[in-house]
From TrEMBL:
The keyword Membrane applies. The keyword Transmembrane applies. This is Mn2+/Fe2+ transporter. GO terms for cellular component: plasma membrane. It holds the Pfam family Nramp. PANTHER family: METAL ION TRANSPORT PROTEIN (PTHR11706:SF3), SOLUTE CARRIER PROTEIN FAMILY 11 MEMBER (PTHR11706). Keywords: Membrane, Transmembrane, Transmembrane helix. It comes from Paenibacillus xerothermodurans. It comes from the Bacteria.
Length: 431
């Protein structure tokens, strides 16, 4: 028995050591995951769990699979294309409309995403420290971000993201374990492909589309190749560590998303609590876990929101800068350091500063704004999937490293799914 216990301790220690080693070696995937995992994951997962239990969990699993395939294919194009092109150059080769569309979409989506995160961060810090208005704390968040988005941005960004990743994992996983999840119901919900009837404040279709938009993502998928550049992973020899980095990061994303969902399904739903503000979640946790449990939740909330603020302002500004280069037919290859460019500096500043208007008292509520922005994200995904389907199958670019049948099937299915989702969203908006 003692030998078995020692073996378990050794295995735990070995696993912990592997995770620590991974955190030291990896980076771009961690930065991407914490950029994409913002209010969307927090709100849509908790709303889905609170309103529909585990019945929509298949959408979470499918969305994460879609996102992994899209991002990994983009990374392979970046590492293996024979012309040294960036991902945006590949899209521009198809048609000039792509850089125009992506530049506008990146600015609009980036502005709204940062707006949601700054607003949510302000509300969270106001509750955590129990003084000051949410708007005042949003301004503080904005000012602190200036120090991170100064010189040598990526290295500072990676360090901050790794710290926040540890905070998020410990906070949300601890809350999920305490909630005692129904594993059987989770399994049924993951493979059941069911769409329950409308209940709660938000309809099933809107929540489902918002979940796909939050997890499968849209413009945020485009920023991963730029983080690879910042890390110095720009050649085929980096493919193995890139893939492992992405697998590790997505595994953590799955754990965090499931943990938030479990809190919604096991604590909010049984008590009939509708998620309309962050306070709705924390009040339920206070009842079941006490003040400390609610504070741990808020700590995780701040981590997931603030990581997206700095990641989005940095990453989306790179996409916009690259698009402008393509529109002007300027030379810009994957070895160029975008962060030194004046265009990048101006747009990262705009994406960081202008969203503060949404934090002014009286503006749209945090949860409603989050669900709308996530659903809006779906509109840009067809263009990404269609373009990627074309450039990632060109042997003139990638030689033998083109897509396999499964990747092509996922991209094709994603295109169909998101066109339908965008159509339903627009019909619902104008009806």
């Amino acid at each position: 028995m003692e030998t078995q216990k020692q073996a378990q301790i050794d295995n735990t220690g070995s696993l912990l050591q592997k995770m620590i080693t991974a955190m030291r070696l990896y980076g771009p995937g961690i930065v991407l995951v914490l950029t994409m995992m913002g209010a969307g994951d927090l709100i849509t997962s908790s709303v889905s769990g609170a309103n529909y239990g585990y019945s929509l969990m298949w959408l979470l699993a499918g969305s994460l699979l879609i996102r992994y395939v899209i991002v990994n294919v983009m990374a392979r194009f970046q590492l293996f294309n024979t012309s040294g092109m960036t991902i945006l150059q590949g899209y521009a080769k198809i048609h000039k409309v792509f850089p125009y569309f992506f530049a506008v979409a990146a600015f609009v989506c980036g502005h709204l995403i940062v707006a949601v995160m700054i607003k949510g961060s302000g509300e969270t810090l106001s509750v955590m420290f129990n003084f000051g208005s949410p708007f005042l704390w949003s301004v503080v968040v904005l000012l602190v971000s200036f120090f991170i988005l100064g010189r040598d941005v990526y290295n500072k960004l990676e360090i901050v993201m790794k710290v926040l990743l540890a905070v998020l994992t410990l906070s949300f996983l601890g809350l999920a374990v305490y909630s005692v999840p129904d594993v059987g119901a989770m399994l049924i919900g993951t493979i059941g492909f069911g769409m329950p009837e409308n209940t709660g404040a938000y309809g099933t279709l809107l929540v489902g589309i918002s979940l796909v938009g939050a997890v499968a993502g849209s413009m945020t998928n485009l920023i991963y190749p730029y983080f690879l550049q910042d890390k110095g992973w720009v050649t085929p020899s980096h493919k193995r560590i890139q893939r492992n980095d992405l697998l590790f990061s997505f595994s953590v994303a799955i754990v965090i998303n499931l943990s938030v969902w479990v809190v919604g399904a096991e604590i909010l739903r049984p008590n009939g609590i509708q998620v309309e503000t962050i306070d709705d979640i924390s009040k339920a946790l206070s009842i079941h876990l006490g003040a400390f449990g609610a504070w741990v939740f808020y700590l995780g909330v701040f981590g997931i929101l603030y990581s997206t603020v700095i990641g989005t302002a940095n990453g989306y500004a790179k996409v916009i800068t690259d698009c402008i280069y393509k529109i002007k037919d300027l030379s810009f290859d994957k070895n160029h350091k975008i962060e030194d460019d004046k265009i990048f500096k101006w747009f990262s500043l705009l994406l960081l500063v202008t969203p503060i208007i949404w934090s002014i008292p009286g503006a749209t509520g945090f949860v409603a704004l989050t669900i709308f922005v996530n659903a809006l994200n779906v509109v840009g995904l067809p263009a990404i999937a269609i373009g990627l389907l074309i450039i990632s199958n060109k042997r003139s670019y990638l030689g033998s490293y083109t897509n396999n049948w499964f990747e092509n099937a996922v991209l094709a299915l994603t295109t169909i799914l998101t066109i339908w989702s965008a159509y339903e969203l627009l019909i619902g908006f104008f009806s």
